[in-house]
Amino acid sequence: MQVYLNGKAYEAKPGETVLQLALRNGIYIPHLCFHEKTGQAAKCRACVVEVEGIPGLKTSCNLPLKEGLKISTNSERVLDAQRMVVDLALSSGRHDCLSCEQSGNCELQDAAYYLGIERPTYQLYEDNFEVDDSSEFILVDRSKCISCGRCVEACNHTVVNEVIGFGERGFATKIVFDGDIPMGTSTCVQCGECMQLCPVGCIIDKRAVGSGRNWELDKVETVCPYCGVGCRMEVQVDRKQNKITRILGVDDSPTNNGMLCVKGRFGFDFVNSDERLTSPLIKENGSFRDASWEEAIALIARKFTEIKKEFGSDAIAGLASAKVTNEENFAFQKFIRKEVGTNNVDHCARL
Amino acid sequence: MTNDIAGIKKADVILIIGSDTSAAHPVIAARIKQAVRDGKTKLIVIDPKKITIADYADIYASHRPGTDVAVLNCLMHEILKNGWEDKEYIQNRLEGFEEFKAEVMKDIYSPEYVEKISGVPAETLRAIAKLFGTAKTASLYYAMGITQHTTGTDNVWSTANLQMICGNLGVEGGGVNPLRGQSNVQGACDMGGLPNVYPGYQKVTDAKAQAKFEKAWNCKLDNKVGITVTEMFDAMYDGKLKGLYVMGENPYLSDPDQNHIIKAMETIDFMVVQDLFMTETAAYADVILPAAAYAEKEGHVTNTERRVQKSNKVIDPPKGVKADWEIIQLIANAMGSDWNYQSPRDITKEINLLTPQYAGITWERVGRNGLQWPCPTTDHPGTPYLHKGKFARGKGLLKPIPFQEANELPDEEYPLILTTGRVLQQFHTGTMSRKTEGLNNLAGPMVMISVYDAEKMGISNSEVVKIATRRGEIEAPAFVTKRIQPGVIYIPFHYSEAPANRLTNSAIDPVAKIPEYKVCAAKVKKTN
After folding, report:
1. Do B351 and A281 touch (CB under 8 A)?
2. How many whole angstroms separate alpha carbon A241 and alpha carbon B472?
3. Which of residues 229-248 of B touch A (CB under 8 A)?
4. Domains of chain A listed by start with CATH number
5. Which domains are seen in chain B, by residue range?
6. What is the residue-wise DSSP string for B332-400?
7. Which residues of B touch A341 (CB under 8 A)?
8. Is B481 on the interface with A (CB under 8 A)?
9. For residue A42, what pLDDT band results from cuts at 50, 70 and 90?
């Protein structure tokens, strides 16, 4: 099906909305409540566009495409309307980009940048927000909430933990946990899905605050080291310090679709732990001393060879690991079978 | 898993038995909850504890630990009695039906009788059988709640019997789906980290497989099955095993009957431990080798749905640390061999050559989303679900499984059943998860005890109590709850300060050699 965006023809896919078609073709339309995972909400109205033959403006996130539709995403009328919506969102909270953790990764900031809004026109809030820092890993600063509803949708429909909802009405509308209690005392399991989908700096990684701007961090994809689901995650790294700063789920992964659990998302401290072993250790008279790799390896080779000679290969056994790679497990069983000469190899699959 | 994660939402009915899914596999739990929430899928949960995911179930049943075979046989009894089985599937794809039927149709598997064995009301058993048996496509999920029993093999076989007679194997959205508990436990098995098989489950007793690996590795290999982890510690204890090489494992906390494990480690002549940390096990080693963490090296890991994914290097390892494969190669060469792997890629190539299921999963092909084995050639797309059209062995074998009680049952001295498992915020022996302070703040040691038993003994919430079995004694704060049935206590096994495995029974399943972590006799005492 052919449609026109800003006078140019595009081929649309079945079921696609105007916003999806535009984004797929690199045409930016500000949008704050829509996310591929939480779906169309048509709440924030930042994504309005003009359609030839239809009076008024239409939200593009829930506007289905029809053959020959002619849409303008950047007419003055459209941009004025978008500007007003984004200005009001900025005016309704304390969005201090200078020190906001989300700066550089904020969808409201992106929209303001696109529309050329330097500072909000109004101040529509009373400065009496409380920051909820009651949970171990997640910080909630409601002064930055734009009531987009993504976290509510994510908590109830994506991870289905059913903790977050909207409370109060009108200007007082806010996100609440269970019956409006602090996040840390609620039934929240801190999977962090709300945090990953929050378009602004309202729900953020508490421990990452101040530890690096989004654009300063390297992003590498890998697989979670905990259970066997194999969730794909994006690890954000501070290269100067060789340190993991934060972890996000990868949205297009067929295993986890962006979701993670509290361990996968926040339980990475062991990697950069001060308690890591950094030298081989040899036990002498009941206590360990540092040894060189050469000495340690030579000792192991000598001992295993002696045992093999004196008691036979079956007097040695090896435990492979459910936490190392396929390549390493392959090498390990090859070592036990070929070099030691026994099939005494197992691991904790049963435990 | 016979099936894949994407297939979860294709089931009309999902049965979870013996898996605390939202604690141990939270993202799969989310997928299951999504399916239920969408309204297309019904959920049945059978577990001794009213686990979180039971709150989303259409039917929940709390069975006495160790009665899984009785419950599953009862469901099949009802299904056959009412003619809900898939007759065409049984006719065309299965064998052994008559012998199997003779077992499950015995009166002892009637709902009334099994109510007496399992504690699940007969009406509930009937309702589960009807919902499951009449579903077009039903899937079954389990974890260690099914396997960690002296009847573990029987339990697994029963889940397969159920799925076979209902025609739910080899179909999208069905399957027998064991959830694997560690990031690469699937891969460690696939790669021959087991005493009876080479990589790709090629038997060490098979002369052809032996010849294949002897040729590839240019050496002589032994055709005798080796010993399993539980047998290793017995052999160490008896002085028969003289040397042990442990890579990234912590048997001090993960293996049953801790006192026995400690004595075994004290007895052995020479033990090498390769790990990130000075673990409880490493403290007993003669040599400790510092290994790189997952984020400091590259390679592949295989998840619960047999998806082989690339694990990338994220940061540099600390100075002085080596990747496990490098260390193994150093030891092999120091023993006079001539290994020459330049990088994990060289090993991947060898895996492709020697492991039929992995032949098509090359370094270059894996991509961002990985490939699911079996993937026999480099143009094969991978296999989302197994046994389509035909079972791996030809016809699916139904096997009569008589119910047997657990090895150690409660008695006058030890009147409670102790069962163990995981909590959401911790992982296995805590080597990784316990380094994150926030996780420790969220979840510390505890013993879950029913309100009924706690009241009887005058125990209040958070009160530190003593838990004892024939193997030993620990202390932990009581978590008094209605979520666990009277007569049963539950302890997570992550904690060295309250090690559940000091208490557990080392009796093992005769075939799988898996210890019976899920049932042993225990008592609880007040500390004051």
Report:
1. no
2. 46
3. 229-230, 232, 235, 240-248
4. 2-91 (3.10.20.740), 130-208 (3.30.70.20), 211-276 (2.20.25.90), 292-347 (no CATH)
5. 5-179 (3.40.228.10), 185-372 (3.40.50.740), 416-526 (2.40.40.20)
6. HHHTT------SHHHHHHHHHHH-GGGTT--TTT-TTT-EESP--STT----SSS-SSSBTTBSEEP--
7. 220-222
8. no
9. confident
Closest CA to A109 of A92, A126, A90: A90
Cα–Cα distance for residue pair B81/B74, rounded to 1 Å: 10
What is the edge-to-edge ordering of all strands in the sheet holding A2-5?
A8-11, A2-5, A70-72, A48-51, A57-59
| Tokens representing residue A54 in the block | 């239809």
Helix (H, G, I), strand (E, B) or coil at A226: coil
Per-chain mean pLDDT for chain B: 97
Instruction: Write the pLDDT tens digit of every residue in A204-259.
Output: 999 999 999 999 999 999 999 999 999 999 999 999 999 999 999 999 999 999 99
Is B349 in contact with B364 (CB distance < 8 Å)? no
Q: Alpha carbon of B103 to those of A161, A290, B99, B108: distances in Å?
A: 42, 62, 7, 9
Measured CA to CA, the distance from residue B278 to residue A277 in angstroms comes to 7
**Residue B281 pLDDT > 80:** yes
pLDDT band at B301 (very low <50, low <70, confident <90, very high): very high
Written as six digits, the tokens of B492 are 């997570």
Token pair listed for A200: 């602004």
CA distance A299 to chain B (A): 9
Q: Do A327 and B288 touch (CB under 8 A)?
A: no
pLDDT, tens digit (0-9, with 9 covering 90-100), for A222-233: 999 999 999 999
Q: Residue B44 and residue A271: Cα distance in Å, rounded?
A: 39
B407 pLDDT higher than 90:
yes
Tell me the ipTM for this assembly.
Answer: 0.96
SS3 for B7-40 is HHHHCCEEEEECCCHHHHCHHHHHHHHHHHHCCC
Residues in A touching B507 (Cβ below 8 Å): none
Please answer yes or no on whether A273 and B435 come within 8 Å at the CB atom: yes
